[in-house]
Amino acid sequence: MLDVSKRDRRTFERIPVSIPLTLINLDSDKVVEQARTCDISAKGVGILSRKYLSSGDRLELWLKMPDRREPFYTRGSVVWTRLQPTGEYRTGVSLERAEFMGMSRIFRS
Prior knowledge:
Elements: E1 15-16, E2 20-25, E3 30-40, E4 44-49, E5 58-63, E6 72-83, E7 89-95, H1 100-108
Antiparallel strand pairs: 1-3, 2-3, 2-5, 3-4, 4-7, 5-6, 6-7
């Protein structure tokens, strides 16, 4: 039987996808250009980058969509950051609002 305390409580399923992105840390005004998604859902994004992002940092994210149209823009807050064996940081970002239109662009690409 599955331990309820360890069950994933996400409302939206995460989709593994690597999309280059630029992000702006609104709390420090720093731009991080060499980052990419590792997974995405309608309400959150997993990011890999060389920069450490602190829990609670507010971010603007500009995803360079594979459909080659304008970048997809969204905002969110850092929930957690963990150092990976590769030396990169994996960061979980909770989006301010569900992004169903952005998800549909990813599925179409």
